[in-house]
Amino acid sequence: MSDDGDTNRYIRIRGDQAELGMFVHAVHCSWIHNPFWRRSFLLISPQDRALIHESVPQITIDLAKGRGLKAMAMADSRDRNDPAPPAEPPAAVAPEPVVAIRPRRRKPPTELERAAATAERAIAAVTRLFAEARLGRAIRTADLLPMVEEIAHATSHNGAALIAVTRLKDKDQYTYIHSVAVGTLMMGLARHLGMDDDDVRVAGLAGMLHDIGKMQVPAEIVDKPGRLTGEELAQIRLHPGLGHRMLLDLEDLDPRILDVCLHHHEKMDGTGYPDGLKGKEISRFARLAAVCDVYDAVTSIRSYKRAWSPHEALAQMLEWEGHFDPAMLRAFIACLGIQPFGALVRLHSNRLGIVVREGESPTTPIVRSFFDVPDQQTLPVEDVATSGDPIIRAERGEYWFGEGWPTLQAEIMAQVAVPEAPRHHLTRARM
Question: Of 49, 119, 202, 314, which residue has the fewest beta carbons closer than 10 angstroms?
Fold first, then answer.
């Protein structure tokens, strides 16, 4: 609907008139200066209001979803129709009582909502910085440091918040959202590996800057809605070197950030680019970045492919022999708390089962149970919702079933199992 199509609902106002409680239906400025990746949103953050006041000439607000400019409109109308000051009321007329209106109490945001809001601010910051890089202007990585700190804090005690930040997907804002997601994942994995706070922050900034070289690749190639030709792919593969040269001009930048930018596409078997590094020639930070970069890329919506589920992505990544550092990939899976399809897991009910499909959330998949641990015997297969019978940990199939595990795994995954009925399994004590 256009801004003028319904004057009773949509009103265009100046950016400096924006107030908390308004619903922003549209932001009227060039995409380069747009501080938001969302098309519409409820204005509840003082920081977002300040951004609009500073950089947005006009916005359109939706009166059906938020507050308007009623008081200001009444004042303007009074000034136009009655410019003279009002006469004093007769002494006999008592002034009308002032009725205090108690503002509606809003529920405090949840941890997941706060984490998502932090990610949105980070995406806006990355968008602005990358826009400067695209125009060939000097960039200020210091602008990203507060965002790195915020995300690190928002995800430090809540694994679900880490996943929430990286589940923000929009194919039209892919490069910017991907950069924030990779930075977030790298911080989570660095923390899981026991790195100190300084290293975690370096990992976050490295992730946010790893693809900045794409700003020097023609936009029609970066944003092409389809598979790239050989020539176009060759141009895309220049972005690590282009980004590295851009970052070299910055003073006091941690060398590990430069290394991640240049080498996040290297592979353990030496078939990566740009330098064909192999095994331990690839730094720890670059190996960490490679896992996080690919995971977010394959779980993202692109115009030429569907997004893989987290379980599907991890299962595929495990099969790509020679691509990733195996220990780093295993640590990443443990960090996310998301098990790949085909993984053997132990449930709270002390049954073993195989992850077979998605559940209510990435951390609660459907598991096909088939083995009772206390009794050491097989069971009729049942598909279990792990939202009710949580996964305790991953298990090694070879430890439990020896060399016959791959065959047994394939047989169980090929079976058709019925959903589990409520039963006594869920009350068993954990071993």
Answer: 49
